[in-house]
Amino acid sequence: SGIQWYPGHMTRARRQVEADLAKVDLALELVDARVPVSSRNPDIDRILGQKPRIILLNKSDLAHPAATQKFAESFRSRGIPALSVDAASGEGVKAIAPAVEQALQQLLQRWQQRGMRPRPFRAMVLGIPNVGKSSLINRLAGRRRTVTADRPGVTRGPQWVSIGQKLELLDTPGILWPKFEDPTVGLKLSATGAVSDLVVDVQHVASYILQAIRDKAIETLQERYSLNVLEVPEASWLDAVAKRRGFLLSGGVYDREKAAIQVLGDFRAGKLGRFTLDETE
Ligand code: G4P
Predict the structure, then answer these.
(1) Fewer CB atoms inside 10 Å of the end CB: C or N, the chain?
(2) Are both 246 and 122 inside the same structural domain?
(3) Binding-site residue positions
(4) Pfam families given for it (predicted)?
């Protein structure tokens, strides 16, 4: 998640994705189910053009289930097939290949009308950093892919992995940049780990998380951090966490930075509950 995006970097990433897209019939657009809108690349529609796609709401194990269903329905109502998956456990992954077949029925018919023998459908995975692209490819491929050592003078191009009889997947994902302009989106992407902690104010992000989940996690925050969000003023929340955990700096000052890192880690690991940070419309 440590990638920093510069214009040249973005142009190169886009060209790579466009070159790979030309080789496939369909794109599997991976989003983070906790932030299904904020974790989409801002130019994705333009980059994909007419290419068929399926949206995969990944990390659904960490998101609020009802919200994930709402977002999936909202994508479907706009004509984009959407599935909820968990690439870490494999939940929902088996539904992907049939969904690809379903989405490419027209292509199959076209081949048949032209008297062509059907070949396996070709797909690629794309999404912003840390959304679970590699995990998903490994899951779909059904084994840990072995990384072959570089041999001098040999450039290894992208490889295809067979997913059953009817689907081939590009073994390297397309990496796209996230949205940066909206500060709230930045906070959400930091909260979920799409943006490196090295480039954000960790205390600010942790405070944002506590604020975002406070009403739904009153008991959890009480139990885990002895933090009563209804009584303690917001400015002292990280002090409360530090106090409970014994995070102290010299002079008995609460180590708010360490408390913030704790909150971030707990949130990302799902220890505070399952939360969706984007609003369903
Ligand atoms: P990327 O290729 O898009 O950059 O993402 P990658 O697959 O490397 O996944 C990023 C992190 O997200 C990994 O955690 C991975 O295990 C985790 N992850 C991927 N899919 C899911 C999911 O559906 N649910 C959950 N809970 N986690 C998921 P990591 O901490 O970087 O590594 P590790 O925990 O695997 O050691």
Answers:
(1) C
(2) no
(3) 58-61, 130-135, 174
(4) MMR_HSR1
Q: 214: domain CATH number?
A: 1.10.1580.10
| End residue of a domain, out of 125, 157, 175 | 175
Give the tens place of pLDDT for each residue, 118-139. 999 999 999 999 999 999 999 9
Report the pocket of ligand 1 as residue ranges, CB < 6 Å.
58-59, 61-62, 86-88, 127, 129-135, 173
> Which atom of ligand 1 is nearest the CA belonging to 128?
3
Q: Supply the residue whose CA is at minimum distance from atom 33 of ligand 1.
A: 88
Asked if 233 and 170 sit in the same domain, the reply is no
> Residues annotated as binding site for GTP?
58-61, 130-135, 174
Whether residues 16 and 139 share a domain: the answer is yes
Residues spanned by the domain of 41: 7-175
Instruction: Express as a percent the part of the chain with pLDDT over 70.
Output: 94
CA of 134 to the centre of ligand 1 (A): 8
Q: Is the pTM of this model over 0.90?
A: yes
